[in-house]
Amino acid sequence: xxxxxxxxxxxxxxxxxxxxxxxxxxxxxxxxxxxxxxxxxxxxxxxxxxxxxxxxxxxxxxxxxxxxxxxxxxxxxxxxxxxxxxxxxxxxxxxxxxxxxxxxxxxxxxxxxxxxxxxxxxxxxxxxxxxxxxxxxxxxxxxxxxxxxxxxxxxxxxxxxxxxxxxxxxx
Length: 171
Prior knowledge:
The chain is mainly alpha-helical. The chain has one domain. Helix content is 74%, strand content 0%. The protein is built from six helices and no strands. The protein has helices at 2-25, 45-76, 81-104, 106-116, 120-140, 144-157. Helix 2 (45-76) runs antiparallel to helix 3 and helix 3 crosses helix 4 (106-116). It is globular, with a radius of gyration of 19 Å. It starts with a helix and ends in a 14-residue tail after the last helix.
């Protein structure tokens, strides 16, 4: 069984590294095709909000996809359902909370986002490097350190309840 998990780690790590490199260098952009269209009579109300949300989600899929794939690969190789759930909860909170805060403080958000726009290349590079580091950790089997760290966070967040033990696939 150990050999099986090592192959899973190798494949998962390589995929995460490729996704990290893509975030930095955007070499998969050749596969992206973007078509923009504008409606003269835009639907309003709930239907308009639904359509705008669907378009927004479809437009963000290439941006969110590689990071979500990395989180899902890390979650599936964590060895614990609860740890996987925690990864996905933190990912979802990290993705959703900025949007909620931006909606509550829209005017300030617009001013800040204009200033932040100049830093997007740096943010992309940092995100890509983090994915590459996670990919290397997965390949080496050292992602257990991340699992232990999240287990400690889980213990603190749950008020001291013991967290699940980390899984060691190398034994």
